[in-house]
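Posting for a labmate who doesn't have an account.
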Amino acid sequence: MSLSLNEKSNATCMWQALLWSEGIRNDRDGIDGLFGNDTYQASRVFQDWNGLTVDGVVGKGTFAEAGKRLTYVSGSTARGKELTLKYESGVRNISLIRDSQGRYKFRDANSGWRVAGYDYLTCP
């Protein structure tokens, strides 16, 4: 994700929620799925804090670093089974689900579950 790639998506919403969890974004209501300048700058802060290349692009390396904060809560770790996870940043924790198809789900601002994906925007 970046300013020009997948800039409007539920995956961006999930990333913004992780940045909020980290304390980099302060406004939970600002999670809108639009990868604008605020999300770009917050992504750069996350990358800087974690010793990554600071380019504001949320690619495999940035997601892998965020993935280090996922902890098991419940469910089966077997492929094709649902798994509940917690993203633990040390500031705020958020719940995530990896569904039986391997897709991640996160809670939107209204506490509804949304599937993270690049081809649609339904999270605000």
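Reply:
Got it, the structure tokens are right above this. The first strand starts at residue 70 and ends at 75.
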